[in-house]
Amino acid sequence: MGGALMRLICFLLLSCGGGIGYVNSEPTQEKQALLAFLSRTPHKNRVQWNASDSACNWVGVECDANRSFVYSLRLPGVGLVGPIPPNTLGKLSQLRVLSLRSNRLSGEIPSDFSNLTLLRSLYLQSNQFSGVFPASVTRMNRLTRLDLSSNNFSGKIPFDVNNLTHLTGLFLENNKFSGNLPSINPANLRDFNVSNNNLNGSIPATLSKFPQSAFTGNLDLCGGPLPPCNPFFPSPAPSPSLPPPVAPVHKKSNKLSTAAIVGIAVGGAVFIVLLLLLLLFCLKKRRRQRPGKAPKPPAAATARAVTMEAGTSSSKDDITGGAAEADRNKLVFFEGGVYSFDLEDLLRASAEVLGKGSVGTSYKAVLEEGTTVVVKRLKEVAVGKREFEMQMEVLGKIKHDNVVPLRAFYYSKDEKLLVYDYMPAGSLSALLHGSRGSGRTPLDWDNRMRIALSAARGLAHLHVSGKIVHGNIKASNILLRPDHDACVSDFGLNPLFGNTTPPTRVAGYRAPEVVETRKVTFKSDVYSFGVLLLELLTGKAPNQASLGEEGIDLPRWVQSVVREEWTAEVFDVELMRYHNIEEEMVQLLQIAMGCVSTVPDQRPAMQEVVRMIEDMNRGETDDGLRQSSDDPSKGSDGHTPPPESRTPPTALTP
Ligand SMILES: *[C@@H]1O[C@H](CO)[C@@H](O)[C@H](O)[C@H]1NC(C)=O
Ligand SMILES: *[C@@H]1O[C@H](CO)[C@@H](O)[C@H](O)[C@H]1NC(C)=O
Ligand SMILES: *[C@@H]1O[C@H](CO)[C@@H](O)[C@H](O)[C@H]1NC(C)=O
Ligand SMILES: *[C@@H]1O[C@H](CO)[C@@H](O)[C@H](O)[C@H]1NC(C)=O
Ligand SMILES: *[C@@H]1O[C@H](CO)[C@@H](O)[C@H](O)[C@H]1NC(C)=O
Ligand SMILES: *[C@@H]1O[C@H](CO)[C@@H](O)[C@H](O)[C@H]1NC(C)=O
Ligand SMILES: *[C@@H]1O[C@H](CO)[C@@H](O)[C@H](O)[C@H]1NC(C)=O
């Protein structure tokens, strides 16, 4: 991703300082540097830069919107041979992205690369570079992706890699790096690979979260995901500040063999686990028995079963009060439902807390017959029984593939329960933000688009057919079907709480006017949906502290990044591995920005949002490949484009 994308974003959002007016004519010095580079580096004639044309029009070169500096240089697989001449590329001091992957470049990385201090992404993989880990690279302290894999680098991996604090991906596999692994620890490092080198010694604790395949094929690495280190020859701790992860535990028992130690350790662990299981089993059995033996007081048991499992305390009054009304209050099912259980079945179900929200707590309840449902236990309901039932009537009628159906409700003085279908695939929030890093399948672009569209359809159905304001759109209320279609849940509950929205609602999704008036509307739903789209695009939770400044919300953060920084960093790094999706991301970003307009009237209606997403130029051609805004073959004036292949996902190229 580079200048073209940013120009596009800028153009679409119309919010960038200089617009796209071509103010400055030409980055002359940079042009000279580029010409010097190409003339002094033998290459196949795939790249021909016309010296009388602007450098910004050259194949592989992208400039900023003002065309005043070169923003990215990407020459993958164009047959460049030999060393990078000094004093050429090092002069592109504004460069953000440099990709020279898959050439036959060799020699050391020139020391003047240390001038490329603004570089965010450096892709040098699949060449024949040699020498030690380039010191110049450890000075590029804004780097987020560094790929030196499949080269001939040797020597130690320096501890100074830690100077690259923004690093999210570090790829050093298939080289000849030797010595110990330093404890590399950038906060956001998500992808890491040092496999197939000559490393030895223990894997530092900071890196042990990465999978085994990130370390295999080395001389003698141990610990972490690999088998434990030999305790009698503990390797020196790679970093003095961090103890080696495994060795010290075993160190003391000097007279036992490794096998014996391992045996004892494993045996001990198994014993403790067994003991714990036994204890748990006993406790659980006792709990289970109690409600069963009691002579079934329906409502009382609801309260108890639910509170017990939730681990919260409920006052005695609650329980008896519920029991008194039990006869008059029954579980009310809506027509067309598939369930045939009664309140007592629900009471005997085992419950597990799914989440605590602003309007109450949700439980997953597994009935004895095997059915699983979600029970939502509302707190602080402000309306009386009649109004409650009327609203339930409205909500129970909603039937749509992208709306989680409300199946039943229960109302008593002290207990208000809603019964919904259970969606085993979980929520968008869990999918997007749950355990990032090792072992997680990232949510790919196609699925994100699918979620965006299906959630939009569900919400539009609520608005148009149901005339219902959802009132609480957020990622944890977007649930997924196994096929990754989304359904919206938790809709239309605001009227139950009187005129005021519960103030504890997740702030990041609230439209500005709702903060003031506490009243949700169709347009405030659209705002929240816009925030949700931004969340899908950026991978950031709207209430996440990592947005930098305190109190800044996701829409403003996106605007500031797009306007000021001129980088593709606004998009989720997990999306960087997919190719030819830039245009779609920008289109969706544009829709999202429309939804989060400060002025409610400027936001589109939900059905328009659906149409815009449907109309998005998802240019799938017959062979399944997408047309790309970033396709180098476009606008290259008849020059043979570099053979930029659709790289497999793991290559992580720009
Ligand atoms: C483009 O140039 C104009 C005028 O020189 C300047 O005001 C604007 O900030 C520049 N835009 C960017 C993104 O550098
Ligand atoms: C180089 O660019 C100039 C000006 O754009 C053009 O007149 C000329 O034909 C180009 N030369 C080649 C070889 O494409
Ligand atoms: C690197 O930057 C320094 C200071 O800005 C400058 O003096 C030097 O000439 C630059 N080196 C190259 C190769 O551009
Ligand atoms: C990395 O940071 C340390 C401490 O800030 C500093 O001493 C060292 O010179 C830096 N290394 C490089 C290559 O910039
Ligand atoms: C790799 O580097 C070593 C020296 O470190 C050198 O002897 C060898 O020829 C290099 N191999 C290639 C393929 O460049
Ligand atoms: C690391 O690289 C090796 C070799 O390219 C590959 O087989 C392995 O799957 C990679 N592991 C990870 C976690 O990326
Ligand atoms: C790791 O390799 C280096 C150099 O080959 C050697 O000096 C060192 O003793 C080795 N360390 C371990 C723990 O094997």
Characterization of the model:
The chain has 2 domains: 28-222, Alpha-Beta Horseshoe (Leucine-rich repeat, LRR (right-handed beta-alpha superhelix)); 334-434 and 442-544 and 551-618, Transferase(Phosphotransferase), domain 1, CATH 1.10.510.10. Helix content is 29%, strand content 14%. The protein is built from 15 helices and 22 strands. Strands 1-2-4-6-8-10-12 form a 7-stranded mixed β-sheet, with no helix packed on it. Strands 3-5-7-9-11-13-14 form a 7-stranded parallel β-sheet, with no helix packed on it. A 6-stranded antiparallel β-sheet has the order 15-19-20-18-17-16, with helices on both faces. α10 (445-464) packs antiparallel against α15 (606-615). The chain starts with a helix and ends in a 39-residue tail after the last helix. Bound molecules: 2-acetamido-2-deoxy-beta-D-glucopyranose (7 copies). One 2-acetamido-2-deoxy-beta-D-glucopyranose (NAG) binds next to β7 and β9. Residues 16-18, 23, 64-66, 566 line the site of one 2-acetamido-2-deoxy-beta-D-glucopyranose.
